[in-house]
Amino acid sequence: MLSKRNPQLNKNGELIHLLSIEGLPRAVVSHILDTASTFLSVNDREVKKVPLLRGKSLFNLFFENSTRTRTTFEIAAKRLSADVINLDIAKSSASKGESLLDTIANLSAMQADMFVVRHSESGAPYLIAQHCAPHVHVVNAGDGRHAHPTQGLLDMYTIRHFKKDFTQLSVAIVGDIVHSRVARSDIHALTTLGVPDIRAVGPKTLVPGDLAQMGVRVCHNMEEGIRGADVIIMLRLQNERMSGGMLPSAGEYFKSYGLTPEKLALAKPDCIVMHPGPINRGVEIDSAVADGSHSVILPQVTFGIAVRMAVMSIIAGNEA
Amino acid sequence: MLSKRNPQLNKNGELIHLLSIEGLPRAVVSHILDTASTFLSVNDREVKKVPLLRGKSLFNLFFENSTRTRTTFEIAAKRLSADVINLDIAKSSASKGESLLDTIANLSAMQADMFVVRHSESGAPYLIAQHCAPHVHVVNAGDGRHAHPTQGLLDMYTIRHFKKDFTQLSVAIVGDIVHSRVARSDIHALTTLGVPDIRAVGPKTLVPGDLAQMGVRVCHNMEEGIRGADVIIMLRLQNERMSGGMLPSAGEYFKSYGLTPEKLALAKPDCIVMHPGPINRGVEIDSAVADGSHSVILPQVTFGIAVRMAVMSIIAGNEA
Amino acid sequence: MLSKRNPQLNKNGELIHLLSIEGLPRAVVSHILDTASTFLSVNDREVKKVPLLRGKSLFNLFFENSTRTRTTFEIAAKRLSADVINLDIAKSSASKGESLLDTIANLSAMQADMFVVRHSESGAPYLIAQHCAPHVHVVNAGDGRHAHPTQGLLDMYTIRHFKKDFTQLSVAIVGDIVHSRVARSDIHALTTLGVPDIRAVGPKTLVPGDLAQMGVRVCHNMEEGIRGADVIIMLRLQNERMSGGMLPSAGEYFKSYGLTPEKLALAKPDCIVMHPGPINRGVEIDSAVADGSHSVILPQVTFGIAVRMAVMSIIAGNEA
User: Fold this and answer.
1) Quaternary structure (chains A, B, C) (predicted)?
2) Which residues of C are known binding-site members for carbamoyl phosphate?
3) Are residues C156 and C139 in the same domain?
4) What ipTM was estimated for this complex?
């Protein structure tokens, strides 16, 4: 049974936590995207609120700091009328030597309804989902190098919005694949949704060789990697990669793997360019591309709110 | 007249601030616990909100940092539909050299309705209650070594929930009594509610000799202190006590005063074990006890939300 | 056309951003003050909320830290039923090397409705207003030395409340005029509202000579500057001015420019004393004056909430 293998689903196969896109049935992913579509219209209304989570308490537990991602969850939750509690968790109990599971047990006892968790350790949201009270739902907002499922889902929403059909697409993911939880979540989602041609593009130090077994084509040459692509997903280059000796310099990287109008011309004429943000102009992407007509980077942000509203409202409606 | 001696009560003897349990009439304490009982059911409802404080502005003024306690007040206030303003007060006006009373006067002028105050100086909430505008209510969320009245009240709620009648109980408070505002608040509350046998248990360096005049029996021997107890309240051992030379080591402390299953066997068979959290496993309490069937540590957290809702709704309803 | 020269107004001359008082027509300023008057009564009600901004998302973008000012905007927005998102912007994207305009574009894409911006660079709110999406409204909460328009407006509200008619008044602004965005905003507002006698009082190092062209009389002598004044606006002396060699010492400054009861006796008998806070007792103002019967410093704070509610509700109701 699926529910035994996947802690995200209850015994009816319904989503109760969102921990990873890996292992989610295509129907569940599609249901999230369909629901997000209805919320997108809420965000266009004069009063951008629906009462779906009224009286629910959502805790933002960001063990790893990320103001931007926390903000998107906070907005999404408030538009669902939830009460949002932001915990500055790094300053808090952790510093008093309390264990992660004791912290979680305590917050559960405050009758929390949902934890949105970001953590530098891969798997932390799983541990929390396994140990929290049955009435609590967990959303993974990024764990180590493992997964960033709401980013993966908003990327899928974006692709579906602009391309409609997944089953004919070529998608290139470019950059620091090895350290990227976004890339991992995107690859799982694209595979689940039936994308036939997924390419991982970047230097050998940043693109793992074992991606082939995930059905991904590895390209160390940028021009080859994006040729004929319908979708290009650029990844953010972390500065620490360059100081860590894995890369020569930002300038060298940009020359080989930065997305310029010239390189973009190799892709399909109606190719869309995505990026999880924040972008490094002149490092992984040229300003002319970031601000150009192929870029859908800002629509990704807008869709991200609706996708997070969809995830939260779906899991809150299902019982463990 | 009571109101002259106790700034917490108005001239009708009604609660307008909660500063300390000391001096509160038993009827007021019981009224808080009865009210909390009604809120506990609110917290179990699908929509956990009541509109009692709608449109009221509650300011969390934590001059001393405590994410956990602040969070419990924030949740309680939001469930009462209040607007909650968290002031990072340490970073704020204080650093501009403004006096405490000028800060308070300014916040009062913003038409605050309630201040929840934590301060490292004993008595700071009294000072604030004396000087703030008459429409503002003050709740002490812990001041120096003096008092932590909502913790005391939630401890009483917990005891009443599990033991019903206070007048037949033996209650042992174990640990660092001398530095503990929780212990002081608990002792006042237990006395007010008619508990006949209160014991303060710990090493001589941590248990003051003058407790006898408060009607408390001092025990420097743990086994003697908890024998036959109905309730054991374990206190958190602050790490700084050990580095400060007041104690030999965590291991030595645990050997003498840590609550293990073996020691717990000396108490009544239906004894409950409490702790204000966060717990130090293996320092003041063994994991087998913290997670065992006698432990009511997590119910304390749940009751704490209801008790804080009760305190806030009661004082907001009474005029100075 | 006004709208071409003033980015704060739409083509109908309606307020869509509040960036500066400079260039605002007197009718717009009066409309804000009249609207604030209606909100003042909201703040006295049992339920201090109106649903004018329900479902709107307001972002507090404080690139320069100011807990007090942020709090006043947060309270004002919550009383209008808006959802408030506080961004700890210094810790956030800026540290990831993202540009101001990319941050703003991203937040706009989250379907923000309003940005309240404080920034150490003069003009930053203008830049944001020029580049954000058309549905977003911008309020300047203080930019560099340039402007602090809501402070200016609440000062005008205060003067109008106590003095009724602007056209007969003598107003003295005392202190560090050169570094003060409050002084600049006050001077523009007083001029717009027809105050015939505006005086800038302070030492030569702190009072610019070119104020004369703004229709302001410069006085380096305090006694002369406040003689016969109806209104005295004291400015806060920043500590860094004294360490920077621009002033001898706090004691010397107080002797020359501190407002004492003796100096105040030179003003009109019904003179009001204002200060934007936080006050430095014994530096720019004597405690006897700050706490005395002429002081309207705390009413300024109360009026400030109503004025901010007025500004936000007016701009949110007008389309770009």
Assistant:
1) Heterododecamer (2C3:3R2) of six catalytic PyrB chains organized as two trimers (C3), and six regulatory PyrI chains organized as three dimers (R2).
2) 68-69, 118, 148, 151, 277-278
3) no
4) 0.92
